[in-house]
Amino acid sequence: MQVELQHISKRFGPVQANDDVSVTIAAGSIHGLLGENGAGKSTLVKILSGFITHDRGEILLNGKSIPIQTPAEAIRRGIGMLHQDPLDFPPLTVLDNFMMGKTGGLFLNARTALREFRDLAAQFNFRLDGQAQLSELTVGERQQVEILRLLSLGVNTLVLDEPTTGISASQKTALFEAMKQLAAQGKSVIFVSHKLEDVEELCDRVTVMRQGQVAGHLDIIRPIPPDLATRLVDLMFGRELSMPAKPATFQEETALEFQGISLKTDRLTLTVDRLTVRRGEVIGLAGLEGSGQQLLLQLCAGLLHPVQGQLKIEGTEMAHKPYQAFLDAGVSYVPADRLKEGLIRGLSIQEHVALRHPNPGFLIDWREITKLAQQAIGTFSIRGRPSTLVERLSGGNQQRTQLALMPVPLTLLLMEHPTRGLDIESTLWVWQQLIARCETGTTILFISSDLDEIVQYSDRVMVFSGGRMSDPIPVQALTADKLGQMIGGRFE
Amino acid sequence: MPRAMYQAGSLGLALVFLSGLVLLAGASPLNVMLSLWSGAFGTLDQFARVLATLAPLMLCSCGLIFTFAAGLYNLGIEGQVMLGAIGTTLALRVFEPMLPAPLVILMGLGLGALAGVLWGLFAGVLKIYGRINEIFAGLGLNFMAQGLALYLIFGPWKRPGIASMSGTELFNESLWLGTIGKTEASPIALLLGIVSVVVTILVIRGTHFGLQLRAVGHNLRASYVLGIPAVNRLLGSFALCGAFAGIAGALQVLAVFHRLIPNISSNLGFLALLVVMLINFDPLWIVPVSFFFSALNIGSLQLPLSLNLESSLAGVIQGTIVLFALFGQGLARNFKNEEMKG
Description:
heterodimer; A: alpha/beta; 7-stranded mixed sheet; 6-stranded mixed sheet; 21 strands; 33% helix; globular; B: mainly alpha; 14 helices
């Protein structure tokens, strides 16, 4: 089936996620959708598979305009999506999951379904046990179950959103083989990824997205021409980087030291052989979201604990100490999702100030707290009153509130997306505050998906890709090309 | 539309619904109201019984304010009341021969509170370390508490000669909490209720502990990141609620029944859940709403005699008002969200 997306636009509040996007996916082809985080890839495929409705534009299937409003409708039309985080039912068995979504009949026919499941699995060389409980499977195996389920529902266009994150090499090979087989059968595959090497290996054609728009299309001809990667990176990040703008604030003393640290989660394994960060230094962590940067920050914050290795803050071994010890050592973590992890919805600015009071007694001295809150509001130019609930503040003012709540002095400040969603003026102001902190000896590690911000405000930059981590690179030695290559998974 | 309009509207709807129900049962809503009124306030004795119900109800409501503040649905409060009553009975039985009566009563209150705390902490430990939802943990513990009470009444603490559902042997009158005249209302019980309401308001609004409880209840993860000892606070709220419930159970023994009976909690824990949901977790409203609900409970007792209606109508009225109020709050919230989207 030929799938055409024409002039698709979608807006989420102030964010234009898709802006007049047109893509055509030929029947029997594997089409890559490549782009930086937040480029609009996921939004586009979620529109196609009925999870999100679009504001403008149309979807044409085999040349006919078809309105798709719900995932069930998309599946009826033959479009199925495999989500980045599997949308399945871990407490049920593999076979139960496989039968999920089948229509018709009052009773389940498990025997027929099992036969169908085994036939399909054999066809793609997937080794799966129908009776196993899904929660015991790896992410890669759960993907396989989901692919079989979608195929049994008659899907002929399969959308895969970042499917190679968190699966083993052999599972990746099996997955790619299966996709090639599907394409050979005349089915279309849409492969959403940020990994250059995966796209090069698998896709027939690739569409690169940037800031909600299509940056360009490229046919991938085999053998791969040597300049393909550079051309893709140009499309993904195609712009000049800003000039470094930060004064040197680091001192000679070591603030943070890693040795042989490794950390495991379901999706990623992060290892840090050796890393030292100087006092007052700013390290920018670049990479697509979920490549391991957040793990590193949470490790430094004491919110995650390494399997092994040493982590020293100001010379003290901290690796297995409780979170409170990190707070006592002057470590502060400022999460990206302000209302989920940073601030407490339902409480006011002054209540947050009271919560952060360094020596709480039994009773709260509300007069003193209101005065402190008033001061913070003045110093940090927060548009709100002490009694304003934090969820009523704008994003910029929430960020200012988070900064106002940080204790003084600080040893280590860990920030996720310090200026996400802020206007230029607030961004400049936030960084002024942060640099002032560095001058007093605070070390900052921050994540940002804005490469300009990384280059402007870091002393050194570390790039993450799929749990791998580059050595820190002095910001003067960075080029847009090099940064893009590394973010795409090429470390040299 | 402002929230008050939704609340007034939902109250009106609840009354319409209840009137319809009463009409269906073949009675007149006006007569039911009059009968409820005279049942609760007709005589001094009846009014005193309203006050006697009010004290433990206020205590339970205070306890629930703390668990709700921490974001917990402490359905185990019934069991915590029962354990309080059991603890008190134990203290009275043990200390009666060796201590003067006022001290025995004090020990009874203390051991009641302690038993409630333990039962509350039990639910907290199951919730936090066993990852069992506090609703199920609480309900399970309620059954256990009920079983324990029955076992004691029919086993070790049975009345000499006959074990029966009417409970254990009456305690000596010296161990009864003093009452106003010959009525059932105990000034000490009422005082305990009022003091706990004041303490609750103060702790929730004026202390770091109360603020931290609310922070944990609103957003556990962010509270943890901000450095609040979240586990400690959650357990603390269970313990506090257990203490209030335990004292309520102690009062049921000391001031109302003067013995341990199978239904010693009189479902006051569940009734307090309704109170606290109706007042939207604001402790300032505990006294008036608890009073209203107590009056309904007592007033309904004479419905079978005067109008040939079931006295369980009180529960229907209480439940209906709470459900409609919650419905109104939900509508108001939806409406506000729509407005913000538009």
